[in-house]
Amino acid sequence: MREKAENNHSATHLLFSTLRKKYGPSIKQLGSDNNFNRLRLDFPLDHRPSESEIEDIEATMKELINSEIERKYINTTFDAAEEMGAIALENEDYGYTVRVVKFGDMIELCGGTHAANTKQIQDFVITKVESIGSGVYRIKALTGIAARKYKDEELSL
Questions:
Q1: Given a cut of 90, is residue 155 above it in pLDDT?
Q2: pLDDT tens digits for 89-103?
Q3: Per CATH, the architecture of 2-70+116-156 is what?
Q4: Mean pLDDT calculated for residue range 128-141
Q5: What's the Rg (C-alpha) of the chain?
């Protein structure tokens, strides 16, 4: 169970990074939720992501997973983390000392539990993109065996 939660939590970070690379730094994490079953991420965007954009996001995520990127933790000051380019969540209160999680060039402040390597995530699929408000979208996704089962079920329809 813990490994599934680690995988979904790590995939949430990678998804946020992927969205920022695709759409730019105006992308903010407005909310997220992940557990051992699934993940979701809320973000602002001026349009609903097209099917082609969703496929590109999934392809980038699979590329990151298959790149076998090792996770690194860095304990440092908040100021030093910002200088490194770490992304901090808005409206989050951080202390003087923070933990940075890093997968390649993805670097964020986070004290949670993460996969040791992106390969551990195994697979990724977006199951739904929905509007949850004016200019705010939610991506729901699965990783690992759950992602593979979902794809198999979709193919059999």
A1: no
A2: 887 889 999 999 999
A3: 2-Layer Sandwich (3.30)
A4: 98
A5: 15
Would you list the domain boundaries of the chain?
Answer: 2-70+116-156
**If you ran DSSP here, which 8-state letter would residue 27 be given?**
-
Where are the alpha helices (H) located in 85-143, listed in sequence order? none
Q: Which residue has the tokens 């705010």?
A: 136
For the chain, percent of residues with pLDDT exceeding 70: 99
Lowest mean pLDDT among 92-96, 138-142, 149-153: 92-96
| Helices of type H across 24-143 | 51-66, 78-84
136 touches 42 (CB < 8 A) = yes
User: Which residue type does 143 have?
Assistant: T
Q: Cβ distance 75 to 68 under 8 Å?
A: no
Alpha-carbon gap, residue 48 to 70, rounded angstroms = 32
At 92, the amino acid letter reads E
